[in-house]
Amino acid sequence: MTSRLERLIDQGVGRVPADIVLKGGSFFDLVTGEVVRSDIAIGADRIVGTSGTYVGETEIDISGRTVVPGFIDTHLHIESSLVTPHEFDRCVLPYGVTTAICDPHEIANVLGTAGIEFFLQSALETIMDIRVQLSSCVPATHLETAGADLPIERLLPFRHHPKVIGLAEFMNFPGVIHKDPVCMAKLDAFQGGHIDGHAPLLSGNDLNGYLAAGIRTEHECTTATEALEKIRKGMHILVREGSVSKDLAALIPIITERLSPYLALCTDDRNPLDIAEQGHLDHMIRTAIANGVEPLAIYRAASISAARAFGLRDRGLVAPGWRADLVVLDSLEGCRADMVFSAGRRVSDALFSTRKPVAPIGLDSVKARPVNAAHFGVPVAEGETPVIGVTPGKIITEHRRYRLPVKGNETAVDLANDIIKVAVIERHGKNGNHANGFVQGFGLKKGAIASTVGHDSHNICVVGVSEDDMARAANRLGEIQGGFVVVDDGKVTGEIALPIAGLMSLEPYEKVRDTLHDLRKAAFALGATLEEPFLQLAFLPLPVIPHLKISDRGMVDVDKFVLIG
């Protein structure tokens, strides 16, 4: 009896028909940069033949089209798509993303190991190859209350799971540099494996110390200068373009043929509405080429360079013996998928129907205490008031100061300067903490917007002009067990329920997409000017340090960052 391996060899030689043959088209050779006219023969889950003529049990005519390797999203939080891994699979795979390397950091900060287990179970069922990085920062900061705590002892049982690649983005870079014992325990355990980085604006000797810990990849570069320093110091740069963090334009200068072996692409956080309107990694590829990037550079970054950065040795080229993750395109410049193959299987609704479901978890995770308008008062302080400054398209915020108006014995909003109230409300049922502040840049003229998606601890974050509307929005989140809510004059004018850990919907991605469209309209009716007001709101609770030099004093100047909650 012929073994599976022997059959693959026979198919490659041409002794027996291949399972599938793509005929009449071409493929993009990411080694030489040539577009090669050829049949592509597939046996089981891998490519068995190129640069020749083949007979297949199934033959598909792809005349006039070009085949490229499947795209690899090298860093993302599937939770930010607001749908389950199964729905993410169904939503994104048709755009050519055949591998996704995710960090279940968001659900882990709410539910702990149960969240990681949910993702690993889902990854075993999806058609797309979802790989998991073990969340390194749960909690993400001691400055806010998370729902869980994951020391190294709780991560190690997952280390050898077949879907686990390594340790996820190590956000606590001051902890690395100053050898925090909790950080050191995690880094020690994963020496020799993959450790993903997260060190915005870190440079000089501090960067050297961070990299000495064995950290190799980075998705937080926002300028070409920052990226070049990190590339020179051995980092693999993951160029990011998500729904909020849009760094592609700034990093276009580094996406060259010379540097492409040290680049990859990622989305980090992208919602179904943006995917429907623009696409996914295909959108990044089209945009890069339209802005003068050589196709060879960007397609390498999207596949073979990404695979090598994360130790995925079986994918990233259209070549015999490589995993048959393939995208049939209209053209290299257009980058629109006509058909997609995942491990040799043509992607279709019928293929998705073969997956086993995974039961949802965390359906009662919103345990916030009810609030009223009085909870949102800010006492009058002498002088100027700290204000969080939002930068559209960035998660980095600014620390601004304004002399704000006073109403009675409280500090009031300043609509003339686009300054409204913001609050973070603990929702894990631990301590009931509540913090208030001010934010500039949302554009709201009335009402309130609230969310249980609040990176990284995922407490309730609410912005608004009216304290009554802020209270109504926050309380409504408890009633629907998480999500996004828009309130205008006491009425809920838009909402989406995200009951899985307060982060993900139980609905198909199409319904989530359509609901997000209506939700965005409701936010714009309040005057919102941000393209993505909800995801921008989700990043407001982050303590972001725009510039620092850590080593000299072992501390950070608090005037350099804004923190609420």
Which labels suit this protein?
disordered C terminus, 28 strands, adenine deaminase activity, single chain, Adenine deaminase, 26% helix, 565 residues, Urease, subunit C, domain 1, alpha/beta, EC 3.5.4.2, TIM Barrel, 3 domains, eight-stranded parallel sheet
Write a structural description.
- The structure is a single chain.
- With 565 residues, the protein is α/β, with parallel strands linked by helices.
- It folds into three domains: 61 residues, Urease, subunit C, domain 1 (Roll), CATH 2.30.40.10; 286 residues, Metal-dependent hydrolases (TIM Barrel); 192 residues, no CATH class.
- It has 18 helices and 28 strands.
- It has an eight-stranded parallel β-sheet. Strands 20-19-24-23-26-25-27-28 form an eight-stranded mixed β-sheet, sandwiched between helices.
- Strand 21 and strand 22 form a beta hairpin.
- The termini are far apart.
- Belongs to the metallo-dependent hydrolases superfamily. Adenine deaminase family.
Give the strand line-up of the largest sheet: 8-9-10-11-12-13-14-15
Q: What separation lies between the terminal Cα atoms? A: 66 Å
What percent of the residues sit in helical stretches (DSSP H or I)?
25-40%
Biggest sheet character = 8 strands, parallel
From the spread of the alpha carbons, the general shape counts as globular
In the CATH scheme, the class of the largest domain would be Alpha Beta
The CATH topology of the largest domain is what?
Answer: TIM Barrel
- Rounded to an integer in angstroms, the radius of gyration calculated over CA atoms is 24 Å
Number of domains: 3
CATH superfamily of the largest domain: Metal-dependent hydrolases
Total DSSP E strands: 28
> Which architecture of the largest domain does the CATH hierarchy give at level 2?
Alpha-Beta Barrel
Low-confidence stretches: 544-565
Give average pLDDT, whole number. 93
| SS class | alpha/beta
Question: Hey, roughly how much beta strand do the residues contain?
Answer: 15-25%
Query: What is the helix tally?
Result: 18
